[in-house]
Amino acid sequence: MEYNTTRPNMIISEYGRNIQKMAEYIIQIEDRERRTRMAHSLVNIMAIMHPDARESVDLKHKLWDHLYIMCDFKLDVDAAFPPPSPAELYTRPDRIEYPQEEIALRPYGKLIHKIIKEVSLMDESPEREVLIKNIANHLKKSYLNWNRDSVNDELIAEHLELLSRGKLKLSEDTRLSHTNEILGRNRPVNTRPKKLQIGRPVNNQSNTNNPNNPNANPGNRPPSSNNNTQGGRKDFRGRKRP
């Protein structure tokens, strides 16, 4: 028997061992025309194995690149796409340099610093006061993402002044949103209507004219046929009730 430990490693394992063997067989075909025809057939088989990628624009280009890679770049056929370069395939990508900026309070993020900078350049106006309050509410909401207990407005005002370098300040009579309101607590529960019970009256007021209904109006019950003036209550058949 042939075990996987004795077989060569598969270059692209997602296509399986049989596709790898077909690619190795195509390299050994001497006739170029026949080799090209077999390569096109193998690419079509590879496309059938991945039906979820048929809508991709560069699917054929990707499959031909995979075939060249599985053939160790030794495949010489007339293909619609040129073979990729081995140096381009095994070259490590360039390192991405992440921007390093000084942020006074990192939990609030970098975008809020840019917003504060733009608002600090505005002239005194009612619109500017509204923006300052909205920024303070956003700072309070961001602060509660890290501390779920509580936060006072004085601390948020201090942070706002620190981030704006003293250019934005909250007035003394400004009140920010409550913590429960920001966290979504104590919301009113939506009252849903009760489901109707099939085969039963909706309430005690319905079917009052039905003599079999125990909650029916006694005045609408049929009169008793009891003519006996002696004590005790009798039903409509004249039998004495216990």
Polypeptide structure, described:
With 242 residues, the protein is mainly α. Among the domains are: 87 residues, no CATH class; 78 residues, no CATH class. Helix 1 packs antiparallel against helix 2.
List the helices and strands and how they pair.
Blueprint: H1 16-27, H2 32-48, H3 59-70, H4 86-90, H5 111-120, H6 126-144, H7 153-163, H8 179-183
Helix pairs in contact: 1-2, 2-3, 5-6, 6-7
Q: Report the span from N to C terminus.
A: 93 Å
User: Which consecutive residue ranges, at least 5 long each, have pLDDT under 50?
Assistant: 224-230
Describe the main β-sheet briefly: none
Q: Based on CA inertia axes, which overall geometry fits?
A: elongated
Q: Could you give a quick summary of the protein structure above?
A:
The protein contains eight helices and no strands. It has 242 residues and is mainly α.
Structural features:
38% helix, 8 helices, mainly alpha, 0% strand
